[in-house]
Write a structure and sequence with these properties.
- The protein has 102 residues and is of the alpha+beta class.
- It has a 3-stranded antiparallel β-sheet with strand order 1-2-3.
- The protein has one domain.
- Helices cover 44% and strands 12% of the residues.
- The protein starts with a helix and ends in a 9-residue tail after the last helix.
- The radius of gyration is 13 Å and the shape is globular.
Length: 102
């Protein structure tokens, strides 16, 4: 993860949705609720106390652009994290519409 973190922080924007979802941004960890919304856990918190909602289309597009600029190894790591946390792969890969399940 250190290599991915270093590579990701070498790109612009420095803090965005992808950083948050990977735990490199404003939140130590993020999770997705059963109804498809995101919650964030700030460093030092013991729970997911921040309601993030659903990312905007602009945030999703920035995430896809960041993902495309990562090395293949880092892209594989991102996909692995997304699969493990059951985050929508269309946030990074595109192709499918990004709409919430509500």
């Amino acid at each position: 993860m250190d290599i991915l973190r270093k590579e990701l922080f070498g790109l612009e924007p420095k803090i965005d949705l992808l950083h948050d979802l990977l735990g490199f941004g404003r939140f130590a960890e993020t999770t997705m609720t059963s109804d498809g919304f995101f919650l964030g856990r700030r460093p030092g918190d013991i729970g997911f106390n921040e309601f993030l909602g659903w990312p905007s289309e602009a945030a999703i597009e920035r995430t896809r652009n960041l993902f495309q600029r990562l090395s293949p190894e880092s892209q594989d790591r991102v996909v692995s994290v997304f699969l493990g946390k059951q985050f929508p792969l269309e946030f990074v890969k595109g192709g499918l519409p990004c709409t919430s399940n509500t």
